[in-house]
Amino acid sequence: MRRRTFLSWASVGWVMSRVPAVLTAFLAACQGGQKSASGMQTVGKVAELDQKGFLQTESPAPIAVVRNPADPKSLLAVNPTCTHQGCLVAWKAERKAFECPCHGSAFAPDGSVQKGPATAALAKYEASIDGENVVVKL
């Protein structure tokens, strides 16, 4: 075997041995946030939730979290993508509802439809407080 051929194959082997590590790092970066052993994803801090009245994030998925108006010790988390035409809804604390700026749909804190044109509820997630963090199970 010629030296050039050997070095070419050795280089290919070295590059291929690095692919799993690169893919693992890439997937971890794409998932964002920190995932606990229970499968819960950190989406923000309790202090930020209490200061702003809601948390909204795009990573690892679109998620909106608010305190349950009926029980402030519990949290409600939904996918804030309007089920009518896909606009992102906004939390309106004074009305205790998520409202769509595009066509006026309104959703209760638990994601159920209060006012159309949307007819389907927002997807819900399990949410809780873990120390200083707000975590959501996706």
Provide the low-confidence segments as ranges. 32-37
CATH architecture of the largest domain: 3-layer Sandwich
What distance lies between the first and last C-alpha atoms, to the nearest angstrom?
54 Å
CATH topology of the largest domain: Rieske Iron-sulfur Protein
Over the alpha carbons, how many angstroms does the gyration radius reach? 22 Å
Percentage of residues in helical conformation = 25-40%
Mean pLDDT: 84
Strand count: 10
Structural class: alpha+beta
State the major sheet. Answer: 6 strands, antiparallel
How many individual domains?
2
- CATH class of the largest domain, please? Mainly Beta
Give the CA-based shape. Answer: elongated
Strand % is 25-35%
Series of secondary-structure elements, N-terminal to C-terminal: HEHEEEEEEEEE
Walk across the major sheet and give the strand order: 1-10-9-4-3-2
CATH homologous superfamily label of the largest domain? Rieske [2Fe-2S] iron-sulphur domain
Number of helices: 2
GO cellular component, one term: membrane
Domain Rieske: 40-136
Protein name: Rieske [2Fe-2S] domain-containing protein
Organism: Leptolyngbya boryana NIES-2135
Features of this protein?
10 strands, four-stranded antiparallel sheet, 138 residues, alpha+beta, Rieske Iron-sulfur Protein, 2 domains
